[in-house]
C-alpha cells in the first residue's frame, strides 16, 4: 500500500529536509509526489537550470527508504515564460488574456508553451529516469482544473487544424454541424473561430466539438510529456491526477493512456450526500481501468481552504473515507500535502504535518492510519465485482447540458440520484460509457442518455438481448453523435428494446427555485397543471423535469401518471426483449419513486448486495475476496459477517463497529449466509 503526500521542499529551507524525512518515516510514508509546482525553482530563467537542490532532496528521500513520484513540474509556468512569451497565455471567451499570478496560466494548444514544457520534461527525464528512488512519473497536475476552456489565438489555430483532421472537408463539417441554420455555412476552415462571446446561442453541434477539442488539447499536453519520458527510457508507471467526475476532460478517453489511474477526492463535510458522492467518484475512477488498482493521489487530512466554509473532519472520518477508497480498489493513499504551507493561497489547507506540529490530533490520525495501512496484507486487484453498470458518458454530459432544450438538466446530479438508490442497497456499481456495457453485468441503468452513439446503442441492445436488464431514464436516445436528431424522431435506437414509441417531451414548468438536484427540479414542477404524480404498486410518487408522452407498442405498463397533463399515459414500462428486459421511466422520479423503481429492477435482475442486511449508515464494498465494511454513522453497530479479519486473521462472527469504524474482511463470494436472525440492534451481515 502506497502512503504519502505531495512534497514541496522548495517552499522550505534546506534545514528542515532531514526532519521531513525522519517524520515521514514515523508517519509510515513510503512515497511522495515531488516537484509538482517547482518549474521556477528548476529553471529560474530561460537556459538556466538548477537541479542541485532536487538532487539533494531525492537523495535524502532515497536514503530514508521513501520512493518518489516525480512530477514534470509543467502545471504552472514561471513568470519569465509569460513575460518573454505572452502568446503562451490563455484567453477568456471575450478574447481577453488571463494573466500570471495564480496557476495553470497557459494555453494548452500554444506551440511555445509545449516547446518550453517539453524541454523541461526532457531535462528531468535525462537526469532522473534511471534514479533508483523514482518509482513513478506525475505529468502536469489536475489538467484543466481552473482553466476549463481557452479561447486564445493559439486555440483558434489548433481548433481549425483539429476540425480539419476530424472532418477532412468543410462540406463534411457543414453537414455535421447543420450550418444551413442561421446562415452559418463555412467555405473554409479558417473562417471558423472558437465559440467566443456571441449575441446569442452558439451552434450546439459546434459546442460539442469544441468541448471534444478542449479535452483533446489537454490530453495532447499529457501525451507530449509522456512520449518524452518514454523516449528517454522511462520504465516507471506514468500518470496524472484526475478529479473524479470532472466535466471538461473526458477521462474515459484519457484512461487508456494512463499506466495507473490516479485521482484527487475531497468530500465536503457539509454535504449531506458526502458518502454517496465519494463512493460514486471512487467507483468511477475504478471503472476507468478495470482490474488495475488505482491511487488516491490527493485527499485532505482535515479542512481545505477553497470552499466558502471549510470545517474540519470529525474524529474517525479520515480513516473511514480512506477505507472507502481501499475497498473500492485503491492501492495508494496520498494527501495534499506533507507539510502545511506557510504562505500562499493554500496556507489554510490541512496537511499531514500541520503548523501546530506533531502534538496534534491530525498528526495522530495520519500516523495511526499509516500504521494500519502498512500492516495490511497484499490486497487483490479490483475485479469484475460489480454486476450493475451505471451508464455515464462525458460526450452526453456536454450535449445534454447545452442550452435551448425542453428543460435544464444537471446530468451529474441525476446520475448521483440513480447511483444513490443503488448504493443504499449495498450494490457494487461500475460507472461506464454505453459501449462498455457487456454480459459481465446483470443490470444497467442509463439516466438521461440524450446523446447515444451508434456503437453505444448496439452495445445496450446486445446486452438486453443476451439476458441483461436495462433501465433507461427520461431524455434518452434523442440525438446522434453530432447532436442532431435522427430520422424517425426519438428513441430510434432503443425503441425496439424498450417496446415503446416516443411522441413528446412534456416538459414540466414551475418557479425557478435555484439548484438542479431532484428536489429542486421537483419544486419547479409544482405549478398547477405541471404535476406528474404516478403510482407504482402501493407507492405514491411524483415526477419532475418531464412527463414524456410515450406509447406502449409491445411493453407492459408498470405505472401510469395519475394527474396533470400526462394523466393516463405510461410513467414506467417493462418489455421483454430477447433473453432480457428493457424498462423505461418517462419522468425523473422523486426519491420515493426512484427507490421503488430501482428496487423493482434490482429484484427483476437478481442482483445481490455485497453484504445483506446491513444497518443504515453502514456500507460495504468488495474487491475480490476482500470485503470492506464501514460504519459512517455516529453510533456503534453490531454486524455479523462470515469470514476472517484481514488484519488479524481471526475468524469473524459478531463484530462491533464504532462510529466511523472500519472492518477489512476476507469473505469469499461463496461463503454461506449467517443463520443468525436480523434485529434492529443486532444486524446480520452475510457476504452475497
Q: Can you put this structure into words, describing what you see?
A:
With 688 residues, the chain is α/β, with parallel strands linked by helices. The protein folds into 3 domains: 2-149 and 216-375, TIM Barrel, CATH 3.20.20; 388-605, Rossmann fold (3-Layer(aba) Sandwich); 611-687, Golgi alpha-mannosidase II (Immunoglobulin-like), CATH 2.60.40. The two termini are 27 Å apart. The model is unreliable at 511-516, 521-529 and 671-688 (pLDDT under 50).
Shape: globular
> What's the CATH architecture of the largest domain?
Alpha-Beta Barrel
User: What fraction of the residues are assigned to beta strands by DSSP?
Assistant: 15-25%
Name of the CATH first level of the largest domain: Alpha Beta
CATH superfamily membership of the largest domain: Glycosidases
The end-to-end span amounts to: 27 Å
Domains counted in the coordinates: how many? 3
Amino acid at each position: 500500500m502506497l502512503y504519502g503526500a505531495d512534497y514541496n521542499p522548495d517552499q522550505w529551507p534546506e534545514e528542515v529536509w532531514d526532519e521531513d524525512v525522519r517524520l515521514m518515516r514515523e508517519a509510515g510514508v513510503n512515497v511522495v509526489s515531488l516537484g509538482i509546482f517547482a518549474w521556477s525553482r528548476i529553471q529560474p530563467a530561460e537556459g538556466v537550470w538548477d537541479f542541485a537542490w532536487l538532487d539533494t532532496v531525492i537523495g535524502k528521500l532515497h536514503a530514508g527508504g521513501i520512493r518518489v513520484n516525480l512530477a514534470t513540474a509543467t502545471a504552472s509556468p514561471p513568470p519569465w515564460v509569460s513575460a518573454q512569451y505572452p502568446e503562451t497565455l490563455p484567453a477568456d471567451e471575450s478574447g481577453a488574456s488571463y494573466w500570471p499570478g495564480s496557476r495553470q496560466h497557459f494555453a494548452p494548444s500554444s506551440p511555445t508553451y509545449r516547446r518550453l514544457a517539453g524541454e523541461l520534461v526532457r531535462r528531468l527525464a535525462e537526469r532522473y529516469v534511471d534514479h533508483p528512488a523514482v518509482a513513478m512519473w506525475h505529468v502536469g497536475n489536475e489538467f484543466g482544473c481552473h482553466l476549463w476552456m481557452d479561447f486564445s489565438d493559439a486555440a483558434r489555430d489548433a481548433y481549425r487544424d483539429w476540425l480539419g483532421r476530424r472532418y477532412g472537408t468543410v462540406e463534411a463539417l457543414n453537414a455535421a454541424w447543420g450550418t444551413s441554420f442561421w446562415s452559418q455555412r463555412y467555405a473554409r476552415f479558417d473562417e471558423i473561430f472558437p465559440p467566443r462571446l456571441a449575441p446569442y446561442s452558439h451552434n450546439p453541434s459546434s459546442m460539442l466539438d469544441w468541448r471534444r477539442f478542449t479535452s483533446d488539447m489537454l490530453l495532447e499536453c499529457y501525451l507530449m510529456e509522456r512520449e518524452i519520458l518514454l523516449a528517454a527510457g522511462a520504465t516507471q508507471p506514468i500518470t496524472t491526477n484526475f478529479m473524479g467526475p470532472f466535466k471538461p476532460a473526458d477521462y474515459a478517453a484519457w484512461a487508456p493512456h494512463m499506466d495507473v489511474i490516479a485521482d484527487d477526492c475531497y468530500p465536503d463535510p457539509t454535504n449531506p450526500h458526502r458518502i454517496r458522492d465519494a463512493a460514486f467518484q471512487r467507483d468511477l475512477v475504478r471503472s476507468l481501468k478495470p482490474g488495475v488498482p488505482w491511487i488516491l493521489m490527493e485527499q485532505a487530512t482535515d479542512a481545505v481552504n477553497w470552499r466558502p466554509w471549510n470545517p474540519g473532519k470529525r474524529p474517525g472520518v479520515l480513516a473511514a473515507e480512506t477505507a472507502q477508497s481501499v475497498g473500492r480498489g485503491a492501492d495508494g493513499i496520498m494527501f495534499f500535502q506533507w507539510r502545511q504551507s506557510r504562505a500562499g493561497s493554500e496556507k489554510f489547507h490541512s496537511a499531514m504535518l500541520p503548523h501546530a506540529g506533531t502534538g496534534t490530533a491530525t498528526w495522530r490520525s495520519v500516523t495511526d492510519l499509516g500504521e494500519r495501512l502498512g500492516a495490511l496484507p497484499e490486497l487483490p486487484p479490483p475485479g469484475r465485482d460489480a454486476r450493475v453498470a451505471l451508464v455515464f458518458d462525458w460526450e452526453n454530459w456536454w450535449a445534454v447540458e447545452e442550452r435551448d432544450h425542453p428543460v435544464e438538466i444537471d446530468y451529474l446530479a441525476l446520475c448521483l440520484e440513480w447511483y444513490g438508490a443503488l448504493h443504499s442497497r449495498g450494490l457494487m456499481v461500475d460507472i461506464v460509457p454505453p459501449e462498455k456495457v457487456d454480459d459481465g453485468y446483470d443490470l444497467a441503468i442509463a439516466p438521461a442518455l440524450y446523446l447515444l452513439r451508434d456503437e453505444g446503442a448496439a452495445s445496450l441492445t446486445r446486452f438486453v438481448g443476451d439476458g441483461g436488464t436495462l433501465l433507461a431514464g427520461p431524455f434518452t436516445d434523442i440525438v446522434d453523435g453530432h447532436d442532431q436528431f435522427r430520422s424517425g424522431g426519438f428513441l430510434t435506437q432503443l425503441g425496439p428494446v424498450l417496446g415503446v414509441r416516443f411522441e413528446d417531451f412534456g416538459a414540466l414548468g414551475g418557479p425557478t427555485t435555484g439548484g438542479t438536484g431532484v428536489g429542486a427540479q421537483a419544486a419547479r414542477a409544482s405549478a398547477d397543471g405541471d404535476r406528474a404524480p404516478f403510482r407504482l404498486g402501493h407507492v405514491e410518487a411524483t415526477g419532475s423535469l418531464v412527463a414524456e408522452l410515450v406509447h406502449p407498442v409491445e411493453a407492459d405498463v408498470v405505472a401510469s401518471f395519475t394527474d396533470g397533463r400526462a394523466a393516463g399515459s405510461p410513467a414506467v414500462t417493462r418489455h421483454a426483449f430477447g433473453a432480457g428486459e428493457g424498462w423505461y421511466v418517462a419522468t425523473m422520479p422523486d426519491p420515493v419513486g426512484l427507490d421503488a423503481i430501482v428496487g423493482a429492477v434490482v429484484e427483476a435482475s437478481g442482483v445481490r448486495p455485497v453484504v445483506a442486511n446491513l444497518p443504515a449508515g453502514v456500507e460495504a464494498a468488495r474487491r475480490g475476496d476482500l470485503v470492506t465494511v464501514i460504519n459512517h454513522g455516529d453510533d456503534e453497530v453490531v454486524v455479523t459477517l462470515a469470514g476472517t479479519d484481514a488484519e488479524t486473521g481471526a475468524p469473524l462472527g459478531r463484530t462491533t463497529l464504532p462510529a466511523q469504524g472500519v472492518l477489512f474482511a476476507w469473505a469469499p463470494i461463496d461463503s454461506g449466509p449467517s443463520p443468525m436472525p436480523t434485529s434492529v440492534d443486532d444486524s446480520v451481515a452475510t457476504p452475497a
